[in-house]
Design goal:
The protein is mainly β. The protein contains four helices and eleven strands; from the N terminus they run H-E-E-E-E-E-H-E-H-H-E-E-E-E-E. It has a single domain (36-101, 114-217), classed as Pnp Oxidase, Chain A (Roll). It has helices at residues 26-31, 75-80, 141-147, 155-158, and strands at residues 35-36, 38-43, 48-53, 56-60, 65-71, 130-135, 164-166, 173-175, 180-192, 195-208, 216-217. A seven-stranded antiparallel β-sheet has the order 3-2-6-9-10-5-4. A two-stranded antiparallel sheet has the order 1-11. Strands 7-8 form a two-stranded antiparallel ribbon. A hairpin with a 6-residue loop joins strand 7 and strand 8.
C-alpha cells in the first residue's frame, strides 16, 4: 500500500486549515492559565498612554528580547504598530492601523509633566517604537485595574498619586513599586488574529526590586500569592 505524503502547508499558514471561530470553551480555558501582570506605557509626543498586559513573556537573553501581545484595535497597538522612525526594524511591512489618529492630543485637566516640561521628554517614544514595561507587584492590583479600562487611559492622570519616573530611553512613565521595569524598542511586528504581537529588544532595566510577590491574573481575578 502506498503511503500518503501529507500536503505541505502554504507559506504563512499555521497548518491548522482555514480560519474558523474559536471553540466555545476557548476563552474559559485560557482564563485557567495563570499569568503575571504587567503595565505597558508609551509616550507618543503628545500624550502618555498605558495599558495592562498579561500577554508578556521573555524570549531571549542574547540578544535581550521580550514579547508583548496587544489588542490590534487598541491605541497602544496603533502607536507601536508602525515602523516609522524605528532603527531596529527587521523589514516588516506596515501593520494595520499605522500612525496616530488625527486630532488626538493631551487630555484636558492633565497635571504638570516631569522636569523636562513636555510629554515624552526622552529620546525615545512611540515614534522610535519604544515603550516601557513594569512587572507589577502583588500590591499594585488597583493600578492594574485602572489601566485595564477600555479607551485611552492617560498615564499621567492615572499615575498622578503614584510615585513614578520617566524612562531615559523610552520617554515613557514608569511607576515605582513594581518587581522590575524594562525599557524596550520594537524589532518585529507580527499581526496575529485580533492581536498584534511585538518582539522587542530590551534597552535598559530602570530598576529591579530585591524581593516581592508578583501580581497574578487567574480566572479574571488577581488572587493573592500563597
Amino acid at each position: 500500500m502506498t503511503e500518503r505524503t501529507p500536503a505541505l502547508a502554504s507559506a504563512g499558514s499555521t497548518g491548522a486549515g482555514p480560519a474558523t471561530a474559536a471553540p466555545p470553551d476557548f476563552a474559559g480555558a485560557l482564563s485557567a492559565y495563570a499569568t503575571g501582570v504587567t503595565l505597558v506605557t508609551i509616550a507618543d509626543g503628545r500624550d502618555d498612554i498605558g495599558t495592562t498586559v498579561s500577554a508578556f513573556c521573555p524570549v531571549s537573553l542574547e540578544p535581550p528580547l521580550v514579547l508583548v501581545s496587544l489588542l490590534a484595535a487598541s491605541y497602544p497597538a496603533e502607536l507601536l504598530g508602525t515602523s516609522q522612525g524605528e532603527g531596529t526594524s527587521l523589514g516588516d511591512g506596515p501593520s494595520p492601523g499605522d500612525g496616530p489618529s488625527p486630532g488626538d492630543g493631551p487630555s484636558p485637566g492633565d497635571g504638570p509633566d516631569d522636569e523636562r516640561g513636555r510629554v515624552g521628554g526622552g529620546p525615545g517614544g512611540a515614534a522610535a517604537g519604544r515603550f516601557a514595561v513594569c512587572l507589577l507587584a502583588a500590591g499594585q492590583r488597583m493600578l492594574a485595574g485602572r489601566f485595564a479600562a477600555a479607551g485611552r487611559p492617560n498615564a499621567r492622570r492615572m499615575l498622578a498619586e503614584v510615585p513614578h519616573r520617566r524612562g531615559t530611553l523610552s520617554g515613557a512613565l514608569i511607576p515605582d513599586g513594581g518587581l522590575a521595569a524594562l525599557e524596550c524598542e520594537v524589532s518585529r511586528r507580527i499581526p496575529a488574529g485580533d492581536h498584534l504581537v511585538l518582539i522587542a529588544r530590551v534597552l535598559a532595566v530602570p530598576y529591579q526590586a530585591p524581593s516581592g510577590d508578583p501580581l497574578i491574573r487567574f480566572r479574571g481575578r488577581y488572587p493573592a500569592v500563597t
